[in-house]
Amino acid sequence: MQRAMPSETPPTPENADGPSSDTGSPRDFVAALASGLLVIEAFDQDRPRLSISEVAQRAGLTRAAARRHLITLTRLGYAHQTGRQFALSAKVLRFGQSYMHSARLPRLLQPQLTRMALAMQEASSAGVLDGHDVISVAAATAGRVVSATLQPGTRVPAWCTANGRVLLAALPNEDLDAFIARQAMLPLTPQTLTQRDRLRLEIERVRVRGYALVDQELEPGLRTLAVPLRNFRGEVVAAINVSAHAGRMSTAELLDRCLPMLLEVQAHLRQFL
After folding, report:
1. CATH number of 103-270
2. N or C: which terminus of the chain carries fewer CB neighbours within 10 A?
3. pLDDT means per 10 residues in the chain (273 residues)?
4. SUPFAM superfamilies from the xrefs (predicted)?
């Protein structure tokens, strides 16, 4: 039987690697690698130690597959086992460090965050949207520890944080509505906004104003003001904020003192993003 000719043109030296944005065909997808990453993501702050069955359930894998991945991670030093439970090791931090050291965004933002923190004597951080959360990619303080959630690499819920709301405001309405519908919206403090219709209205206000102000919804005493960062095409790529303790600065003072500099940094960075 005659063999069918390949439907794709063989890569030439010029295009052998393909375009940088190419995600490849389904046959290029490495399922084993994807499963291994799901195993790592199964661990979090609330569940630092998991059994094989728990990892399998959280990662959507069979118990046998979860066991193989955990054994591999343990032998490579990315996890360790105590009895029937597994936990990630500090070696996993290398993944985050690789991003921080190689990505352009944190290196571009860090000097501006430091400048803001020193000028206002408050904490400043930058974050990007990742699923339901905002991940901090850069941060600076003026010696005052406002919140541990502002440190690079930490994750916070997007729906109840200032950085998160300016990032959500940039989503198309369909995506925003789907995001809000998926949130449990459990109160984290007495001030946390927990009604979906009110959250939708607040995000509309963020779109109109161009900034988000969140008053003690994530943590008691933590007030945060954020603005989006846009690239030269007008696309929102990140958010930056200034945070202060409620006992030290009112919401009106936070706006008066910090919004002008946030907008200045926003305008300055746009030409580089």
Report:
1. 3.30.450.40
2. N
3. 36 37 73 90 89 94 94 93 92 71 81 94 94 92 69 89 98 97 95 96 98 97 96 93 94 96 95 88
4. GAF domain-like, Winged helix' DNA-binding domain
